[in-house]
Each structure stands twice: as C-alpha cells, then as structure tokens.
Inverse folding.
C-alpha cells in the first residue's frame, strides 16, 4: 500500500480551506496548529508502519481514526473563531453601553 | 403652561422608551457560543487522566498478557466518564462544536474497546498511537472550553 504524507497533508489543507472559505484568514493560525499536529501524527503512523509495529490493515484503521481527530481539531478551530468574534461583539457592545450611560 | 406640561410628558415618555430599548439590547446581547464552564473543564482533565493511566498500565504489561478481561472494568468506567462528558456538553446551548469533540472521543473509545474485545490483545504499536491521539483530542477539548472564557485568548 502506498502512502504519501505530503500529498495527504496537502489534501487536508485544501479540505480545511474549503470548509472555512471566507473565514480562512481569521482561522489560519488555529488551523496551522491543527495541521501541524496532524502532520506529526501522520508521520508517526508512517514510521510505525515502516518499523513493522503495525500492519497494512492497522495502518488503514489508524488513518480512519486520524480523520476523527482531525475533525475534532476543526471543531476546536470553530469554537476559537466564534470566541474571537464573541469577544469583539462584547467589547463593541460595552463601548456602546458606556457611551450611552455617559450621555444620559 | 399646558403646552409646557405636554412637552415634558412627551420628552419623559421618549426617554423611558430609550432606556427600555437599551435594557433590552443589553439583555439580549448577541451570543455565538456557550459561556465557559469550569466543571466541564475539570471533567475533561479527569477523563484525559483516566485514559492516560489506562494506556500507561496497558503498556506496562507484555503484549501477550493484555487479555480483554483484565481491562474490561476500566473500559466500562471510562466509557461512562466520556458519556457524562458528552451529556454535560450537549445540555448547554450553543455548544455543538465542543459536543462534537466529546462525541468523537467517545466513539473512538468504543471502537478501541470492541477491537480489544475481538482480538483479545492490544498491540503496542497501536496502543502508542491511540494514546497520543486521545492526548491530542483532549487538548482540543480543553482549548475549546478555555476559548469560551471572556477576555482570554488561546494564543
């Protein structure tokens, strides 16, 4: 079974960009962390296969499980992004409220 | 005199409407995510520790001494802990993403439990990779919960 780490990583990056579309500039940093984690995990899986610590069937299982971990990472990115927007909303609303209170 | 009275009433009425609107705006401030929950954060750390310990003990034993029966109690205990974590996340509004992370961890745990039961052993190579995956997923869960603290940044 052939396995290209670089190709898999590229495909994952493209998939992530598609998911986030216009929000990509805002989520880029969070995504980078998730993708770096993923790259490291895929490297370790590949090395485990090369050392014969896992067989082909187990390699497939590991890749399937990695999809779950990657999706969990995307969920973390979504929360972090929403939290950033939430903080902006809260800050703007506080400024507005303070200005109104001062005017009254 | 009457004209002045009417004007005063009109102004105070407008002022009252303005104040009422502001209270409504403040009360309904737009929310995108659930508020931070300390208990959930503690539950995440507790589950992470339980799973790490599970793999620690498993890896201490030789591969041919890892019969499922030796670990079944721990599997059930940790499954219940993860189930509770899913529920704790699920009952909170605007918390779908954190629930998703918890559900994925629970599903993986069940999958590994079934595999261990079926093969009646747990290969070292697989255990090391699975342990690291959980570590990572728990760190996502912790970061997601931590990001909900107001005025904090994950960076």
């Amino acid at each position: 079974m052939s396995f290209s780490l670089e190709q898999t990583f590229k495909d994952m990056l493209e998939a992530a960009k598609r998911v986030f579309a216009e929000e990509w500039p805002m989520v880029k940093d969070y995504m980078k962390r998730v993708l770096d984690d993923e790259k490291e995990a895929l490297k370790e899986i590949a090395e485990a296969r090369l050392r014969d610590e896992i067989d082909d069937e187990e390699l497939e299982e590991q890749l399937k499980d990695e999809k779950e971990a990657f999706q969990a990472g995307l969920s973390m990115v979504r929360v972090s992004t929403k939290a950033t927007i939430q903080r902006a909303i809260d800050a703007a609303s506080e400024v507005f409220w303070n200005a109104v209170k001062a005017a009254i | 005199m009457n004209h002045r009275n009417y004007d005063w009433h009109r102004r105070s009425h407008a002022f009252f409407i303005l104040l009422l609107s502001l209270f409504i705006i403040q009360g309904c401030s737009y929310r995108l995510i659930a508020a931070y929950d300390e208990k959930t954060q503690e539950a995440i750390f507790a589950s992470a520790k339980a799973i790490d310990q599970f793999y620690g003990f498993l890896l201490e034993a030789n591969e041919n001494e890892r019969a499922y029966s030796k670990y079944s109690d721990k599997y059930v205990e940790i499954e219940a802990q993860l189930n509770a974590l899913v529920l704790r996340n699920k009952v909170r509004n605007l918390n779908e993403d954190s629930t998703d992370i918890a559900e994925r961890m629970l599903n993986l745990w069940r999958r590994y439990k079934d595999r261990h039961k079926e093969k009646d052993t747990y290969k070292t190579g697989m255990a090391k990779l699975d342990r690291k995956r959980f570590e990572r997923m728990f760190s996502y869960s912790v970061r997601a919960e931590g990001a909900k603290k107001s005025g904090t940044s994950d960076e």
Q: What stands out?
A: Chain A has a mean pLDDT of 86.
